[in-house]
Glycosyltransferase (Bifidobacterium saimiriisciurei), 784 residues
Amino acid sequence: MNARIASVRPWLRSLPVNHRYGCVAAAIILVLEIVCFNLPFWTAISAPAPVESPHMTLGEGLARSGAGVLRVDDPTKAYIEVSGLTDSAGAAGETVRYVRFASGSATNRDAALDDDRHPFDWALHVRIDARTADGVWHTGTDDSFHRHVRPSTYLRNRASDGPVGAVRVWIQETQGAQFAFDTLEVNAHPPLRISPVRVLAMSAVAVVFAMLRPRSRLYRIALNTHSRRQRIAFAAIIVPFAAMFVFTVWNAIWSGSSDVFHQPYSYVYDFNQYAQVADSLLHGRPWLDLPVPQALLDAANPYDVATRDRLLSQGVGDIYWDHVFFDGHWYTYFGVVPSVLLFLPYQAITSLWIEGGAWLPTPVATAVFLFGFLIFSLLLVIRIIDRFFPTISVGVVILLLVVFACGSNAWFLWLRPTFYELAPSSALMFTALGLWLWLSARRVRMPGNDGNGNGDNDDKPRWRTWTINDPALTADPEADGIRIDLRRVAFGSLCIALTLGCRATFIFSALLFLPIFADEIRAGRMLRFLGVLLPRRMRLLPWPRRGLWTTWRSDLAAMLPAAAVFAALFAYNLWRFGSPLDFGNDYQLTVTDLTRYHEPLSVLPQVLGYYLFQPPRLIDSFPWLDVPFTHVEPWQYTERMICGFLWFMPACLLIAALPAMRRTLMRHRIWGLACSLLALGVLELVFVAYKGGLDWRYVSDFGWLFSLVAAMTIPAIFEWSANRRFLFSVGQARLARIAVCVVVALVFATMLMTIAGTFVPSKISPLIRTNPTAYYAVRSWFVW
């Protein structure tokens, strides 16, 4: 064996580095696929033959509920027992390694009962107990499977490794649950299975590692935004998300699932609020067309939780959860902009052939905004790099895209594109688009082209985005050849202002106008009335001696679109609640009476600690992460979170290197923007923690800001490393290489946490419930 390995090594070393890596990766994938992921097959080879015609009995807690369907009547007695097991010699007792749960072909249509109290389960939580020869029952461990994922139906007997005389499969579901059942195959042998999806996933991991490892060739290829090949490569990033977008839209349109949920003596959960706002606007009324119970109108304080609970216990219906109740009508406190831009046109257009028009499914709108955010966030990051780090490599750009995409929380919004995710999704898209437009507004003049390829027609100059390699901005446009594209300024201001009507907390991003256009203000070419307030040493001298309002065109482009949006939103609030600044938040019917509730300041440190530093809870089974316990005293609104942001986004730990990178960032004219993003992120974090409480959705408010700061720090670290690798001592060169390895390792850790967090079963709207087939398919890879 050693001789064979020794003969392979010279051949492997003779290959180019890329081919060598490919051979090693292929070998590892082959071993993992055939050996590791097929351990159930290898460990069951020596197991006894399957038990033919097993004797099965149903526990008293199970009952027949249709052809091939069982129902749980009593969870304490809901089991299926196989007894009378004998070995090959006929002796009592048989070693049972696997039991396959065969569901048969029955579906929910075969079930005898069909209502909310008798759901039909396609995935089951079970436990296998075993009785040994001495008559003692041994308790196994909890397990689960999905009937459409065949590998998951092979259940490992972990109760006893020796001979057993009987096994019981306990059905750990709630009373009334129904499920399909055909038979139990005792000592079933899992087959050797080569999964193309699994091989493709491992190949993708190998490719990503090859692309982003510290010695990758991509770190030696300079970014060129004018290269057709690089543009196609970056556009390819969008392809899988475009497929997800099409699937989400198709599933939302054709699934026909209702967004209204109601049970007797409970609230009505209506998630059509955006569509109802559009319908109300089309009919010229500010309130939603929803019934209001008289008992709620007559209540002394309808916002009191005890009062509402009493009304519900009395059978009063039509009390809508998370709706605004004001002056005898129902409203919504969620932003009106998505309704105006998507829901209203959809209903108006479909009314041409459908009476009253159709309502746009909320998941479709959420998917539209998330897909738009994906595109514009890609453009935003590349614009920042192209403007401030024009000589950076393609590999570093990919690292930045990964950090920003993971830290913005967009992936988890996409996993549940429902009602509550629409507000942050739309706000993220408009913020990314607005910042991209602002950062593209400064244009530099290029030589013209007369159409004959001579390039001698300077009377028709072309303009491109300014970079730090171009001449610095001065107070004289004719001297520096730089102009401000007022259309981009205006549309950028419009997009940023629209965030107030999506999710109001994002409106703070308007403050980024100041660092982005700081040079224009200092040069007196925009917002001159602010520039005169600056000390003379901070101005870009000399200033032309003109009045304060000589920049009125650029000032109007910056402020007029935002003023128009604010005026429209304030008028809408005045129409609804009688006050332009009242968005209706205090009148919502939710977990507490917000008209009287005041957030206790003492909980702020607790919530901030959870948001940033709460470690994940490690478990001994897939996905090895679970939701930790978060206790807040006194009470504040909290929801389940996977972990703190810095645990989930370890790449943001690079922000700690920001002071050390100060000179590099100042040389690249991005220090002020990075500090502004960091300060704004802290402001958003404190505001959300104090006013909103603890919720994973709220990470979207500040996560993109911290991630963008980390993304700006990464190219500075790479530049610092490149300078010290060749110009200083051996120790400095080693330190520079370590710094690069740390950056890459943190980015890989960030991707790993994002992937693992996708499968956490206890988080809000987990994948095990939204897409159980995908969850159990991946889970079956790691259950042996």
Notes: The two ends are 29 Å apart (CA to CA). The chain is about 45% helix and 10% strand.
